[in-house]
Amino acid sequence: MDSKGAHVTESSTASATGGQQEAPMLDTNVPQTARIWNYWLGGKDNFAVDRAVGAQVREAFPEIVDMARASRAFLVRAVSYLAGEAGIRQFLDIGTGLPTADNTHEVAQRVAPESRVVYVDFDPLVLVHARALLTSSPEGVTNYVDADLRDTDKILQAAASTLDLTQPTTLMLLGILGHLADDDEAQSIVKRLVGALPSGSHLVISDGTNTSKQVVEAARIWNQSANPTYHLRSPEQIARFFDGLELLDPGVVSQPRWRPDPSSAGLPTDVEGRCGVGRKP
Amino acid sequence: MSTAEQDGGTGGGPTVRRMLLGAQLRRLREDKGVSREDAGWAIRASESKISRMELGRVGFKDRDVADLLTLYGVADADERAALLTLAREANKPGWWHPYGDLLPNWLQYYLDLEAAAALIRNYEIQFVPGLLQTDAYARAVILLGYGGAGNEEIDRRVGLRMARKQLLTRPDPPQLWAVMDEAVLRRPIGGLEVMRAQIEALEEARSLPNVRLQVIPFRAGGHAAAGGAFSILRFPDQDLPDVVYIEHLTSALYLDRRDDVDRYAEAVGRLFIEAEPLTRTQEILRSALHELDAA
User: Fold this and answer.
1) Residue A228: is the preceding peptide bond cis (ω within 30°)?
2) Does A128 touch chain B (CB under 8 A)?
3) Residue A204 backbone phi and psi in degrees, to 5
4) Which of A218, A257, B25, B63 has its CA 20 to 30 A from that of A66?
5) Spatial distance between the Cα atoms of A277 and A251, rounded to a whole number of angstroms
6) What whole-number distance in Å separates Cα of residue B34 and Cα of residue B221?
7) CB A162 within 8 A of CB A139
8) Residue of B238, B274, B285 best to disrupt the A interface, most CBs of A under 10 A
9) Is-cis flag, bond preceding B236, omega within 30?
């Protein structure tokens, strides 16, 4: 096996569904969430439909760009803590999105090069980019799974070919639970995934909240055309995802307030969202 | 749409520095609310000259840049000096200068862009991607186009193609995502021995961390057959647009309008999705080798 194959494997599940008939199509007629986020973050991997809805949302709610950046910055701080102080070496990142600077495996492997990371997404363009760009350190492993968040069995089964799910694992759900309209369904998916992980595992969540008129209007615009739809929750609903877990300080807070980098000047400005990290006892 | 041939006579200096300077001049002009026409008037030139300057398609004269900076209210001496230095550097020749006599302007332009790219997405239907060709395979391809040339010229053309390849192994190399039609592996350009060595070289290239190579099998229909070969270049600087490059026999087409680029990005995205997955490439190369041996 060559050096590339040794460190970048593709799950059997992903390649088993990669046949010509089943290959998911690249749809440039319907705006897609990963591509709209890419647009807000200044990337070029988006199409006219994505830019159109992205620009409309930004007009109704200009802070969306700060929010997109604040969510990425939270990811960096949370993963640095988990790979560092908390000593976690396995990460299951569902809803990867298009690669940007500081992807989960880069942050984790900067701290602990042996970290193993499984990315899960169902956008075919995300998988094209992920397979090319999200390549592991020689000591660690990255893997990609083509699956929907609702398909928890498939996710866990495919992840188990890369991660030892009897060892503490970080489950990352960033900006993805909002795509589930039904709160009970979202709660039960989180419970199923966390339930499959051992004590000492961590749950990382970040999502938008229905805390201002502008953000509610932005979500309404999004839901007129973009795929999948996005449903804002209340801060209390987001906090409830951590029921049964030990919530780490400072709790469920607006993204910039989660352990801000002490070197960053001034007080963080709140965004219309909440994030948190919980530990499974 | 534009063809680089319109730019004849510029000497083809490092295109990307021109594009960068052009993008900055455009931003300064727009910030100041100056029209292209007024900017053109200030440097005794046409509106379309300003447009070409801002797209990095022409060289810069010191005096023009200095006058524009004054018009745009750039008074800070350091800022002026930095932009004027960039203008001077943009007129220096590219790495390919020793081969300049062999290269039409449209190809010089491409070599500049290629050297500056951070990501090259490439679709090939007939030939192995230029950056992955062996010496002997490249010679066979070049002989197809320049059969009448003398040995010395052929050697230099092959030398140039080999020099281009160095960018894949330099420090901080670009990513190359290439997708080839199966036909590339079946057509023994240069004969069986040359093709055999070329396929072995592809096996080696795919283990480079910055190279990903996929093959579209004959049985895949539709998109794979929808067009000819092309490349899309992306640059590290976010201000620079992606550029689509389509080579013709005697010229090339460069597209950088967003809706044109979108169509090719979509096409190449579909090709990556519909091609055999990366994990199958090694097996496909092996079986192409076996079939060559059986032939």
Assistant:
1) yes
2) yes
3) -120, 125
4) B25
5) 7
6) 51
7) no
8) B274
9) no
Q: Give the CA angle between residues A113, A254, A76 to the nearest 5°.
A: 15
* Cα B110 to Cα B253: distance, rounded to the nearest angstrom: 10
Inspect the interface and report whether the beta carbons of B175 and A132 lie closer than 8 Å: yes
> C-alpha angle with apex A253: A79 to A244, nearest 5 degrees?
75
Q: How far apart (Å, rounded) are the C-alpha atoms in residues B79 and A281?
A: 57
Structure-token match 């709160």, residue found: A183
Q: Is B206 on the interface with A (CB under 8 A)?
A: yes
d(CA A239, CA A273): 11
Strand, helix or coil at A177? Answer: helix
Residue type at B18 in one-letter notation: R
Q: How far is CA A189 from the centre of its chain?
A: 15
A26: nearest CB among B208, B266, B279: B266
- Cα distance between residue B162 and residue A138, in whole Å: 29
Lowest mean pLDDT among A81-95, A125-139, A156-170, A229-243: A125-139
- Give the distance from residue A30's alpha carbon to the nearest chain B alpha carbon, in angstroms: 13
Tens digits of residue pLDDT in A200-252: 999 999 999 999 999 999 999 999 988 889 999 999 999 999 999 999 999 99
Q: What is the CA radius of gyration of chain B?
A: 21
* Partners of residue A119 on adjacent β-strands: A93, A144
DSSP reduced 3-state for A119: strand
Backbone dihedral region of A175: left (phi > 0), alpha (psi from -120 to 50 degrees) or beta?
left
Match 């396995």 to its residue by tokens. Answer: A90
Is residue A94 within 8 A of residue A169, CB to CB? The reply is no
Residue B64 has pLDDT above 90, yes or no: yes
- Alpha helices in A84-177, H assignment, sequence order: 104-111, 124-133, 152-159
CB-based contact, B274 to chain A, within 8 Å: yes
B237 touches chain A (CB under 8 A): no
Helical segments of chain B, H only: 15-32, 36-42, 47-54, 62-71, 77-89, 105-116, 135-146, 151-165, 182-186, 192-205, 258-274, 281-294
* Record: contact B269-A128, CB cut-off 8 A: yes
Predicted complex ipTM:
0.78
**What is the distance between the alpha carbons of residues A3 and B118, in angstroms, rounded to a whole number?**
22
pLDDT per residue as tens digits for the range B110-124: 888 888 889 999 999
Q: Rounded CA gap, A64 and A71, in Å? A: 10
Contact A2 B234 (CB under 8 A): no
**Angle CA(A17)–CA(A18)–CA(A23) in degrees, nearest 5?**
95
The pair of structure tokens assigned to A16 is: 């088993």
Quick check: A234 contacting B, CB < 8 Å? no
Instruction: Report the candidate in A142, A107, A143, A126 with the shortest Cα–Cα distance to residue A14.
Output: A143
What's the pTM?
0.80
Q: Report how far residue B233's alpha carbon sits from residue B214's, in angstroms, rounded to the nearest whole number.
A: 18
